[in-house]
Design goal:
- The chain is built from eight helices and ten strands.
- With about 250 residues, it is an alpha/beta fold.
- It has a single domain, classed as P-loop containing nucleotide triphosphate hydrolases (Rossmann fold, 3-Layer(aba) Sandwich).
- The strands form two sheets. A six-stranded mixed β-sheet has the order 6-7-8-3-9-10, sandwiched between helices. The protein has a four-stranded antiparallel β-sheet with strand order 2-1-4-5, covered by helices on one side.
- Strand 4 and strand 5 form a beta hairpin.
- Helix 5 packs parallel to helix 6.
- The longest helix is centred in the last third of the chain and has 18 residues.
- The structure holds adenosine-5'-diphosphate and magnesium ion (MG).
Length: about 250
């Protein structure tokens, strides 16, 4: 079976005037369906460039990239957009929800770009299902301002799921969240991964990376380490422990 993602000597160079920035330098990497990968590294090491490339937001400067067997470098802009919309769900640090739209409307949005389109009834049905998967079944008519940060990120995850992608890409999805809410969001990703979803996320936090199965560390546009996570954290277990600790504190104070 071919890898879900295969990079071969992948390079991404930004040109601004006279300057050239080699954001990703000759990276070769394979990720199989069902993996849960954290991409780590200091600020400026090329993590976001890597994610945008994996997300087919732009093409490599040189090298090759296959997504699910498709040679991404050979596609034109429309084909690239189509591939992205069908195969990939994106999740961002700042949630990126439309503030005037309800949770359900936000989740329905990616389905509006599907070709061929689907009926509005089916759109609603699929959006409601996605909302239930992230544990917010009764919040569909809430606007983002009426939801907590963690709930907003759940809506964003539901939006990423609604076109039934093969791959979820998340750039610092817990960057704006407190520790407990971050654990809860990692719990959602772990559950999705257990059900078979491939997840790749950027984080600079070691604690968060330990919920993933594999850690890839970048420095100056290169991969400097690629390891399996041993003693992986289980978000549900960690949350249980945290709640017991909180109860103990209440009993003793
Ligand atoms: P990270 O996400 O790890 O902080 P980035 O991928 O954002 O790293 O950036 C990697 C390098 O590429 C940095 O030196 C950054 O300044 C540069 N860079 C990122 N995006 C652009 C761009 N659109 N134009 C020019 N340089 C960029
Ligand atoms: Mg970044």
């Amino acid at each position: 079976m071919s890898a879900l993602i295969k990079l071969e000597s992948f390079c991404k160079t930004y040109r601004t005037g006279e300057m050239e920035v080699h954001a990703v330098r000759a990276v070769s990497l394979e990720i199989q369906a069902g993996e849960f990968v954290a991409i780590m590294g200091a600020s400026g090491s090329g993590k976001s460039t890597m994610m945008n490339s994996l997300g087919c937001l732009d093409r490599p400067t040189s090298g090759r990239f296959w997504l699910d067997g498709v040679d991404v470098g050979s596609l034109n802009r429309d084909e690239l957009a189509d591939l992205r919309n069908k195969k990939i769900g994106f999740i961002f640090q700042g949630f990126n929800l439309l503030s005037r739209s309800t949770a359900l409307e936000n989740i329905e949005l990616p389905m509006l770009y599907l070709r061929p389109g689907i009926s509005t009834d089916l759109q609603t049905e699929r959006a409601e299902k996605a909302l239930a998967i992230v544990g917010l079944a009764n919040r569909g008519d809430h606007r983002p301002s009426q939801l907590s940060g963690g709930q907003q990120q759940r809506v964003a995850i539901a939006r990423a799921l609604v076109n039934q992608p093969k791959l979820l890409l998340a750039d610092e999805p817990t960057g704006n969240l407190d520790t407990q809410t971050s654990m809860e969001i990692m719990g959602v990703f772990q559950e999705l991964n257990r059900a078979g979803m491939t997840v790749i996320m950027v984080t600079h936090e070691l604690d968060i990376a330990r919920y993933c199965k594999r850690n890839v560390v970048m420095r100056d546009g290169r991969i400097v380490s690629d390891t399996e996570v041993v003693n992986r954290h289980d978000a549900m277990e960690e949350l249980k422990k945290l709640r017991l600790e909180q109860q103990a504190v209440q009993l003793t104070s």
